[in-house]
Predict the 3D structure of the following.
Amino acid sequence: MPAPLYRIESSPQLPKEADVVVIGGGVAGVFSAYYLAQRGLKVALVEKGLVGAEQSSRNWGWCRQQNRDARELPMSTHSLTLWERFAEETGEDTGFRRCGLLYLSNDEAELEGWARWRDFARTVGVTTHMLNAEEAKTRGNATSRDWKGGVFSPTDGIADPSRAAPVVARAILKLGGTVHQMCAARGLELQAGKVSGVITEKGTIATKTVVLAGGAWASSFCHQLGIRFPQASTRSSILSVTPGAQGLPDALHTSEVSITSRGDGGYTLAISGRARVDPTLQMLRFSREFVPMFLKRRKSLAPGGLQGWKAGHESLRKWRVDAITPMEKNRILDPKVDQSQIDQTFSRALNLLPELRKTTIANSWAGYIDSTPDGVPAIGEVSGVPGLILAAGFSGHGFGIGPGAGHLVADLITGAKPIVDPVPYRPDRLNTSVWGKVAEF
Ligand SMILES: Cc1cc2nc3c(=O)[nH]c(=O)nc-3n(C[C@H](O)[C@H](O)[C@H](O)COP(=O)(O)OP(=O)(O)OC[C@H]3O[C@@H](n4cnc5c(N)ncnc54)[C@H](O)[C@@H]3O)c2cc1C
């Protein structure tokens, strides 16, 4: 079942040319297009389905510095400011607020890990508070438990996944950009090896610069061009409950279950990291690279089924640009929920937070989470194809850093001083070291 999604209108006509074409209307694509349009560039965004309909509306909505890998922390800190600035600049409401994130635990090793992260974060000016048992009990009083400790990150927050990408897309329109939904990019036109256009199902847009922000579809799109982008997806299932529970934290993580307040007064419930692996040929192709990541996550991953294969997002088939492609056959990647995971999540949540017994399940959905082997996104120009900028592989934590990622894309394209050091994100790192360092958290 799709997650709740705010809908926006598309632009009436596909332009014949643009300074930049952005492929993909998730957070990475819309923020890239927004910052490019803000700098006066003529931008067209093409989305095969609806803006925000894949990962960007299916997530918890956490925008966090807490427990970020060192390589992503600067982008995460900037993103929190950019979420706020976006609302000021546009008057649009993404639902972003710095409500703070609460983590509770009874596991000494986990608490030590959080303390280590706190010490490191302090060195880069990020404040986070470790909680002793008493403080954890007070902050976590909605749970029916005692806790050994926890952590509270006061400057982190949440945004509304059902609104964020669509309202950013609306801001692109106000800046003179165009947004084209139900418009798949089938391929690129190259002249002398450089990008010269984007072939879509509705016609070709001449351009010298393309941003490929295609989420879980990015690797198969790259494959058409002979570009090797190691990427794998896991299927995660989550649920929302009806309004009615009082006095719960806005955002709480425990190893059993995590909750996040929703714009409609309900909550999103999930088990952190829990997912199914649906084997595909693409996964087989990159399996060697993903061994360290899958081993690290082995306790929370379970084997899936053939639906990933059937969905087509990890196809290794070469498609024709003058015929219907897998992207048009599957406008919105809407995988089947893992019902056992949903049942377990709800029952754990009722156990942990008795107040939730006043609610019922409103909705449940699943999403394919696309990852790189080292858990850090690939953002930057693809070597060998001048004009093609990749922005994908956000590895389960791309919603919160969407604004920073989009800003970096715009910086790289316009030659502005990059908002963060672009080196850790360079796509070519994924083809130079087989086993890079997997993200810490
Ligand atoms: C259950 C779950 C929980 C999560 N929780 C969090 C969280 O709390 N915090 C956090 O930061 N992150 C979280 N994430 C991860 C986060 O949602 C993603 O990292 C982020 O949304 C990725 O954004 P994206 O723009 O790269 O991809 P997407 O949102 O998937 O967007 C890609 C878009 O590209 C389009 N597309 C693909 N190919 C083409 C083409 N050829 N032509 C036109 N359009 C195309 C697709 O239709 C899609 O709309 C979670 C994800 C899931 C599934």
